[in-house]
Design brief:
Pathway: Cell wall biogenesis; peptidoglycan biosynthesis. It catalyses: Preferential cleavage: (Ac)2-L-Lys-D-Ala-|-D-Ala. Also transpeptidation of peptidyl-alanyl moieties that are N-acyl substituents of D-alanine. Residues 238-532 form the Penicillin-binding protein transpeptidase domain. The structure is a single chain. The chain folds into two domains: 46-78 and 116-211, Penicillin-binding protein 2a (Domain 2), CATH 3.90.1310.10; 216-556, Beta-lactamase, CATH 3.40.710. Strands 2, 3, 4, 5 and 8 form a five-stranded mixed beta sheet that branches. The protein has a five-stranded antiparallel beta sheet with strand order 10-9-19-18-17, sandwiched between helices. It contains 21 helices and 19 strands. The chain is α+β, with helices and mostly antiparallel strands. Helices cover 34% and strands 21% of the residues.
Length: 564
């Protein structure tokens, strides 16, 4: 080879070398970020390490909501090669999905991540992985399980498939229960297998345990008796609230109908309604203790003061009683549920004074329990009140409340005149309370309200063997299209026991009973009695009445009518 050819070859090799060096510099410097991103997109993956949601327990540590480990199957379509038909059929069978749906998800090569099926059992996930399909992987998640099912449904609510609270305390305490997910950055090969970790693993931080004030035993009892009352009275629905009369803790809250949060395939909106917290109603005669206690506190009457209880006119309207008597003592006004007597005591006050008292016991505003969707009730500004409206508000018309509000207001009678805050969480000590009436007035009210469950009272069916029981029945017509319906009622009984040293407040509401009677003492009183009796035994509360006392047989108790 001549010198000229050698120089040409060397020049060619030099140019080739310079080209390679230039290309290398171009790729390493100019195209570095692009190539790095392309490599990461194909082989680098950031995996979520899901935090375990916090457990919810009752006050005694019994689990009410727990998270069980499950597996979710996911795929990376851009990493996958066509799946053989036989394996696709097997995969579809294991996931209980049409093969066409799976094929459609895997065909979208623009997606780097897609869930095929979430929250399946670890056993099924193991069979899926045994198929050895490149690009398909499993990921551990947690599914919420509620051991009490429909009994606790309205208190706890439920979580969605992503593990976030959707309703109830699951939603209200989301931040506390959720914890914080961790992460793991890994390098995978083209078959989807993890080769190495590219960064330190960030461990998940599990959610905190939520200890409720609820006593699961009392909750079961309340739900059972409420369900029985709704079915026996052929009612539309019902609700019950049980409060600790000394702390304001919610020991039980139940609604019927209910639903199973573990299986929500059939879930009607009416089944999800937490009626005890979100539904408003006019409370009828269960309001009468409040104007009476206001009048006693102001020194305008005593329990033995005689009241003229004959029907009387306020403008064109007549105020009357279902079982009229020409005169009653203030105690009898409570016992016999006199609209005339309670309205006359209410009219002893200026509208602003009565509004202030109702506001102090919590009507017209939320209890601040922290429960999502809690209704605040309705208490109109006193400046717009007419005398007839002020009169009817004394026996529960013209003011709207929720069942938990009504139970909350009765804490002034169980806690010596002080209004207790309501709490769904277990308390180490009672929260600060607010005085509404004196301890002396509260004691007098307890003594008067005891006569309601004694012979001649409207709530004799609410008696409890071995205990003095105090309370008030109520029957209210429902407002339908702007007028009160003659055939739609709410029956109520709210009371506490033992009356001499109250431990429990129980409020029962039966919505639209159609089983032959609709009076609160008849339809709600028996459920109150059963719930109170069982709860006192569960709590080990010492009887305050002779253990050999006898109750009036139910079939011998006359039904006493009340129109409010």
């Amino acid at each position: 080879m001549g010198p000229g050819r050698v120089r040409v070859v060397l020049l060619g090799l030099g140019l080739l070398f310079l080209t390679l060096v230039g290309r290398a510099l171009y790729l390493q410097v100019v195209q570095q970020d692009f190539l790095q991103n392309q490599g990461d997109a194909r082989f680098r993956r950031s995996l979520v390490l899901e935090a375990n949601r916090g457990v919810i327990t009752d006050r005694n540590g019994e689990p009410l909501a727990i998270s069980t480990p499950v597996q979710s199957i996911w795929a990376s379509p851009d990493d996958m090669v066509p799946v053989p038909p036989d394996k696709l059929r097997k995969l579809a069978g294991l996931l209980e999905m049409p093969a066409s749906d799976i094929a459609g998800k895997l065909a979208d090569k623009k997606r780097e991540f897609v869930f095929l099926k979430r929250q399946i059992s670890p056993e099924v996930a193991a069979y899926v992985m045994a198929l050895g399909i490149p690009g398909i992987a499993k990921q551990q998640e947690y599914r919420r399980y509620y051991p009490a099912g429909d009994v606790m449904a309205h208190v706890l609510g439920f979580t969605g498939v992503d593990g976030r609270g959707q309703e109830g305390l699951e939603l209200a305490r989301e931040k506390m229960l959720a914890g914080k997910n961790g992460s793991r950055v890994v390098l995978k090969d083209r078959r989807g297998h993890i080769i190495e970790d590219l960064a330190a693993i960030e461990r998940p931080r599990d959610g905190q345990t939520l200890v409720l004030a609820i006593d699961q035993r009392i909750q079961y009892l309340a739900f059972r008796e409420l369900k029985n009352a709704v079915e026996v009275n052929k009612a539309k629905a019902g609700g019950v609230v049980v409060l600790d009369g000394k702390t304001g803790e919610v020991l039980a809250l139940a609604n019927y109908p209910s639903y199973n949060p573990n299986n929500r395939r059939i879930l009607e909106p009416e089944m999800r309604r937490n009626r005890a917290v979100v539904d408003l109603f006019e409370p009828g005669s269960t309001m009468k203790p409040f104007p009476v206690s206001m009048a006693i506190e102001a020194g305008k009457v005593t329990p033995d003061t005689w009241m003229d209880t004959q029907p009387y006119m306020i403008g064109p309207a007549t105020v009357r009683d279902s079982h009229p008597k020409p005169a009653m003592t203030v105690t009898e006004v409570i016992q016999k549920s006199s609209n005339v007597g309670s309205s006359k005591m209410a009219l002893m006050f200026a509208p602003e004074q009565m509004w202030t008292f109702y506001d102090q016991v919590g009507f017209g505003r939320s209890t601040h329990s922290g429960f999502p969707g809690e209704a605040s009730g309705r208490l109109r500004n006193w400046k717009g009140w007419r005398p007839i409206e002020q009169a009817t508000m004394s026996f529960g018309y013209g003011v709207s409340v929720s069942l938990i509000q009504l139970a909350h207001a009765y804490t002034i009678f169980t806690h010596d005149g002080e209004l207790l805050p309501v709490s769904f969480s277990r308390l180490a000590a009672p929260m600060p309370s607010k005085r509404v009436v004196s301890a002396k007035t509260a004691k007098k009210m307890r003594e008067m309200m005891m006569t309601v469950t004694q012979e001649g009272g409207t709530g004799m069916r609410a008696q409890v063997l071995g205990y003095h029981v105090a309370g008030k029945s109520g029957t209210a017509r429902k407002l339908v299209n702007g007028s009160y319906a003659a055939d739609k009622h709410i029956g109520l009984f709210v009371g506490f026991a033992p009356a001499t040293d109250p431990r429990l407040i129980v409020a029962v509401m039966i919505d639209e009973p159609t089983g032959g009677s609709y009076y609160g003492g008849t339809v709600a009183g028996p459920a109150f009695s059963a719930i109170t009796a069982g709860s006192l035994r569960i709590m080990g509360v010492k009887p305050d009445a002779p253990s050999n006392n006898t109750l009036i047989p139910v079939d011998q108790i006359p039904e006493i009518r009340e129109d409010a």
